Amino acid sequence: MSNIPTDLRYAATHEWVRPEGDGVFTVGISEHAQGLLGDMVFVELPDVGDAVSTGDDICVAESVKAASDVYAPISGEIVAVNEELEDSPELVNSDPFGDGWLFKIKADDAEEVEGLLDAEGYENSIDED
């Protein structure tokens, strides 16, 4: 059973979204996803200023097992990336909901987040995998 914080929203593709205020959201991958991938060796982050749409593959997480696309859970503009991951991609494994965040996005429509899964819905989706 993975840790699934109830204060976050989730995409079915295993990204989590945390509101930071002013329409900005922090995005990372769930504990479940990093567990499936294994030890991270590299994270290719999007560029600050990139405009992204929901479902776009905008990031790549490479582990000892595989490379996996990370998708934009909402539409908007990338306003920050976690530069710590350049030297320490393992933060995604050790602290997926904290220091292992990937990027921050300024939402085109902050209400879009309401369409994502809550913790219970996400738990049910991974139980079905």
First-residue to last-residue Cα separation: 13 Å
Q: Any idea of the CATH class?
A: Mainly Beta
Largest sheet descriptor: 6 strands, antiparallel
> With helices defined by DSSP (H or I, 4 residues minimum), what is the helix count?
4
Indicate the proportion of strand residues: 25-35%
Question: What is the molecular shape?
Answer: globular
SSE succession: EEEHEEEEEHHEH
* E-strand count: 9
CATH topology name, in short, is OB fold (Dihydrolipoamide Acetyltransferase, E2P)
Strand order of the largest sheet: 1-2-3-9-8-5
Organism: Alteromonas profundi
Subunit structure: The glycine cleavage system is composed of four proteins: P, T, L and H.
Cofactor: (R)-lipoate
InterPro entries: 2-oxoA_DH_lipoyl-BS, Biotin_lipoyl, GCV_H, GCV_H/Fam206, GCV_H_sub, Single_hybrid_motif
Describe, in plain words, how this protein is organized in 3D.
- The protein contains 4 helices and 9 strands.
- The mean pLDDT is 95.
- 19% of the residues lie in helices and 35% in strands.
- It has a single domain (9-109), classed as OB fold (Dihydrolipoamide Acetyltransferase, E2P).
- A hairpin with a 4-residue loop joins β1 and β2 (15-21).
- It is globular, with a radius of gyration of 13 Å.
- The protein starts with 8 loop residues before the first strand and ends with a helix.
- The strands form 2 sheets. A 6-stranded antiparallel β-sheet has the order 1-2-3-9-8-5. It has a 3-stranded antiparallel β-sheet with strand order 4-6-7.
- It is an alpha+beta fold.
